[in-house]
Amino acid sequence: MYLCMTKKDLIMAHQLPLEALAVFPPPGMAFPHTFTFTVDQTTLLYLAATPDQPNQQLYALNLTTGERRIAAIPPNGGTQEDNLSPEEELRRQRARQLTTGITQYSRAQQSDRLLIPLLGSVYLQDRADAPLRITAAQDAITPTLSPDGSKIAYVYQGEVYVIDVDDPDAIPRAITNGSAHTTRGLAEYIAQEEMGRSEGFWWSPEGSRIAYAEVDESHLPIYQIPHSGKDQVTHEDHRYPFAGADNAKVSLKIAALDGSDPITLDISGYEYVARVFWWADGTPGAQLLNREQTQLDLVRFDPETGERTLIHREQSAYWVNLRRAHFKALADGRFVWGSERSGMNHLYLYAPDGHLIRALTTGDWMVDSIEAVDLESETVYFTGNRESPLDTHLYAVSFDGSHVRRITPENGTHHVKIDPTFQMFVDVYHSLSQPPMVTVRSLSDARVIHTLHTPNDPRLAQFQLTPPEIVEIDGADGLRFYGAVYRPSSDDGASYFPTIVHVYGGPGPQMVANSWALTCALQLQYLRQAGYLVFRLDNRGSARRGIAFEGALKFQMGSVEVEDQVMGVRWLIAQGLTDPTRIGITGWSYGGYMATLCLLKAPELFKVAVAGAPVTHWDGYDTCYTERYMGTPQSNPDGYAQSSVLTYVDRLRGKLLLIHGLLDENVHFRHTARLMNALNRARKHYDVLLFPDERHLPRRPDDRTYLQERIVGYFKDHL
After folding, report:
1. pLDDT (average), residues 37-48
2. I want to staple 176 with a disulfide (CB 3.0 to 4.6 A). Which of 184, 324, 339, 541 is the partner?
3. Which residue out of 368, 664, 668, 671 is catalytically annotated?
């Protein structure tokens, strides 16, 4: 019976239901993560959900026997979308987090005590087989264990508190005390959203002191967001740093637990506190950025006087990409540093005083992150893309830089966690044809020791997803571009199709890779099944291709990216794949910006655009992100004008659907409102879809389903 089915019957048998597009996570993407080895290396801890249990739980794998068990179950279901405080909701937005149950945990550096924060309460687990116990810390923000696990520090009402968790009678006490218009121990908006720093305080190695950020935002203008969809009149106030205007004022201090006066660290002359840490000798350190983000300084502070010493300076004609895993301080004072000075990001070994010892890696490829450094064998373990810009592998290189050894064998994407004794590593592996699987492997030869997770999502068998085809396109100046083509099946023998470009296009993410994320993109698969050819292209500005490729949009966002997307579409037409009269484009955030710009700047090609949460003028976005690429509106007025969607509204000829959440505190609804005003005044027709209760990324299941229905429906109606 099955063998007699036609190609059309087979497609219909695995047809995606529209409701499936709104389900998180996508098929195959619920896999173990957040791995931690116990101090004695006998147990691996991790978070995981299952098809039967969507709320994440804490699990433990016995590394000797392979036995797996549940180590902790979240009380009352743990974190859910409908039980969040306003602060937690915003922090989840910053982290792009949608998981529920136990969403995070941490282990003390020197003991197996675990900390599990849930809905403002802080739970402890003295070891992985002990029961959870709640602590006296309540309404706690970013609770963190001291290195020995005996204390918890956290932020409450803008002050840093500490509690001794081994004393049953102990009560939390504030170790900071400042003015009402400042906060201590919290990361400001820019740090969370644009610099990847969610923490605002840092324990010293011996646990007797805490470095902390003091933040003053009182001088920033209030941006008010009304809750227009609520029964009661209410609003939110946000201190938002617009491009070209003031940032928050951040200072660094050290508080001692003995109550002595805090020490102020000298960060004068810098705009951004990018990273804070403690050197192995117990002195505080930081990475500090200038406002233009063309100079990143690695410094050491005197803990008694706060005096600053420059250890290393990184400079760039474009900008310094700030990556958390590109610096590793070693116990002997040396450090490993990632730099794009050669054009590609590579690793360098430095002496304690900042003197360069040697380059560890070189070549026309990128190092992604430093995963671990074995000081005894003088080996650095790192991930990168030496074999292909589309892959991510684990490698090892010795301190003499003589040989780079690839460890992970399978082509595709590998994310790893290395155990502190350098005997094994956790490997999360996936590719276009392989949903994520998780194994524990030998670090010496990649031999699989334990299989922790194999794909078990029933939707994989139900949907039978076909990977897209990866294509290589040669552009101008010898540049090579990578694209992904989702080609529909055709019973009538059609060779070219109506086409939808799915775009992000902004600096940073790589959208085309040998990754399951492309295959499980259900919106794109649904459109493919509906008869559309769907296309993704990594234009100039995308990551992992070198700083010159990424930096091509310096001072001119919305120019080379549009040119490259147009080039990609013309390539599809030349291949006979695309109907040149039926081309649409869609994207979200920077992708919404790109979708709108492509429709306006290339109306001869693009007939329909669906733009979600688009930036429409960069003077309305934040300082750190915007100025990194564009400078300020004052220093680059022509660049801001040429990059603005509003400049091109007179060119609108096709169909445009604008989508925005009215509570979006990242790309404010003001962006879409300004575009609507310009379109109205130009007497241009367009459509709009608003979500009164959503922020930058729609999170409610009903809203997500309706969103997909409208996006797909708009293309069906107009393309």
Report:
1. 96
2. 184
3. 664
Distance CA 389, CA 384 (A): 9
Q: How many helices (H) and strands (E) does the chain have?
A: 13, 43
**How many residues in the chain?**
719
Q: How is residue 484 written in tokens?
A: 């992904």
Beta-carbon-side half-sphere exposure of residue 211 (alpha carbons within 13 Å) = 28
Q: Chain-wide mean pLDDT for the chain? A: 94
Could you tell me the two tokens for 669? 């609804």
What would the pLDDT profile of 78-106 be if each residue is shown by its tens digit?
777 777 777 777 777 777 777 888 999 99
Q: Are strands 379-384 and 367-374 parallel, antiparallel or unpaired?
A: antiparallel
Annotation: CATH topology of 467-718: Rossmann fold (3.40.50)
pTM: 0.95
| Cis omega (within 30 of 0) for bond into 25 | yes
Tokens of 567: 């080039």
Look up 664 and say whether it is catalytic.
yes
Residue 580: how many other CB atoms lie within 10 Å:
14
Q: Give the CATH number of domain 32-174; options: 2.40.50.320, 3.90.800.10, 2.130.10.10, 1.10.8.80.
A: 2.130.10.10
238 an active-site residue?
no
The residue from 393, 668, 671, 696 that is catalytic is: 696
Does the annotation count 489 as an active-site position? no
DSSP codes of every residue in 68-93? EEEEE--GGG-B-GGG--HHHHHHHH
Assess contact for 631 and 617: CB atoms under 8 A: no
Q: Which of 589, 617, 643, 660 is catalytic?
A: 589
